[in-house]
Specification:
With 293 residues, this protein is of the alpha/beta class. Helices cover 41% and strands 18% of the residues. The longest helix is centred in the first third of the chain and has 19 residues.
């Protein structure tokens, strides 16, 4: 029976990957730091394993005898540098693949990776791709656009104030994608034994949408006026400070938002047929946002 290790298995993407993989006869090794949360997934053909994915020793121990590895770098609060966090997770994953001779790896990278330096976590994803491309394993780097699920963090603002905010121009084209579609793509390639080599795949949702268009669509879906309010640099700093994000980490996130908001940057990536994923923004709203409102 095939065995696949899934990092951050309780997150939006990891959970979706695990659900798809365990629907058949494949065994999923669910990696996370909270055993109760892993057990709460209640997935058949799964083995919960407590492991720090930034620790080479723990990753090697947790992935023995697996045929494939799904790896992403989850958000973390207790780090002063996102670059350092990405490096640690990358090094631990590389060590596991080398030591355990894992045959296939599917990474979650970022749209625009390798396009330019100093793009915050987009650049760190590029470094992760480079590190895994040095291995003997077959490696697929999935490069998704902007998560639709980011709207869930603003559900209260949308509900009580009739607005949502990003630090982007109202006319900035954004390739919004559902994390469900990212998880589905990852699971599909983890289960597929016909591909090999090192390659990249952009995932860009069904269409690019501007914040101005999103406001109109939310207004129609919710049957109440919803407006878009662009965050200024000062607003962004205040938000980071309120979350306790300061220093290097704040600078890294500022660089990331600047990169994603650049009209000629990461999100200017041309669309190709294989980059399209099925979940529309309206479907996301109906399934995930409306229940919170």
């Amino acid at each position: 029976m095939k065995k696949i290790a899934i990092a951050a298995a309780t997150g939006n993407i990891g959970k979706r990957v695990a659900e798809k993989i365990t629907a058949g006869k494949t065994t999923a090794v669910l990696l996370g730091q909270n055993l109760e949360k892993l057990k709460s997934l209640k997935l058949k053909n799964s083995v919960p394993v407590v492991a720090d994915i930034s620790s080479p020793e723990q990753m090697i121990a947790a992935t023995r005898d697996v045929d494939a590895l799904f790896l992403l770098v989850p958000p973390v609060a207790n780090t002063e540098s996102l670059k350092e966090w990405y490096q640690k997770v990358t090094e631990a994953g590389v060590a596991a693949v080398k030591e355990n001779k894992i045959k296939k790896v599917v990474l979650i990278s970022s749209l625009g990776a390798t396009t330019a330096p100093n793009l915050g976590t987009v650049s760190y994803c590029a470094s992760m791709e480079v590190a895994f491309d040095q291995l003997q394993a077959s490696v697929l780097a999935l490069r998704p656009g902007y998560f639709m699920e980011n709207f869930l963090l603003q559900a209260e603002e949308i509900k009580t104030k009739g607005k949502f905010s990003f630090p982007y121009s109202e006319d900035h084209d954004i390739p919004f994608i559902s994390t469900d579609d990212i998880g589905d793509a990852a699971a599909r390639y983890l289960l597929d034994e016909t591909w090999a080599g090192k390659w990249k795949l952009n995932l860009m949702g069904p269409e690019n949408i501007t914040p101005k268009e999103i406001a109109a669509r939310l207004t129609a879906s919710l049957n109440k006026p919803i407006r878009y309010e662009k965050q200024s640099a000062g607003n962004l700093r205040e938000m980071f400070n309120s979350w306790g994000i300061v220093g290097t980490k704040q600078q890294e996130l500022t660089e990331l938002y600047a990169a994603l908001g650049d009209p000629d940057g990461a999100y200017a990536t041309p669309r190709t047929p294989e980059a399209k994923t099925p979940t529309t923004f309206e479907e996301f709203v109906a399934k995930k946002l409306l229940p919170l409102l």
